[in-house]
Structure formats: structure tokens, C-alpha cells
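Annotated sample (chain length 90).
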Amino acid sequence: MKPYFKIALVILSLSVIGALFIGTDLALLFLFAELASLVSFYMFFSVLIPSLFPEHHRVEENFNCGASEMYLNSEEAYAPNAPFGGVKDK
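Output written by the structure step:
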């Protein structure tokens, strides 16, 4: 997991805990709820946008389990560029 996701998870956790225990005042409750929604949207779009633009991988570099020919051609091999473990084969 990348460092900015760890920071976003900490901020999200703190805002939810703050809304539950510290948010007795209405303004503080809305502050923590807004912070939680901003972090949630940030995490959602930082996962969604890279998955819409996949990285192209060369099939010839894959291990083909001893077969004499490849199972996929190079036009069929795409993988999402996700921040939670995307493959970097360039």
C-alpha cells in the first residue's frame, strides 16, 4: 500500500472517531463528517481513475508454462494501473 493511502486511512479513521466521540457540537460533527467524505472521495477516485486507463504489458515476457506458443497475443494483455498493487512491467 502506498504511503499516501496510509495517511488517508489514518485521517479517515480519526475523522470517524472524532465524529463519534468529540462531535458533540453540531459544527464539530459536520467538520468531521466533511473530512471523512473528502478522504473517502479521494480514495475512491484515486483507485477508479487508474483502473480506467490500463497499462499495456508485453506478453512475450510472461512465463508460458512450457507451451510452444503463447496463449494471448499482445493486444489482449492489459492490466489495471491500480495503486493497490498494480504491475509495473515497462
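Annotation: The chain has two helices and two strands.
Annotation: Strands lie at 55-56, 78-79.
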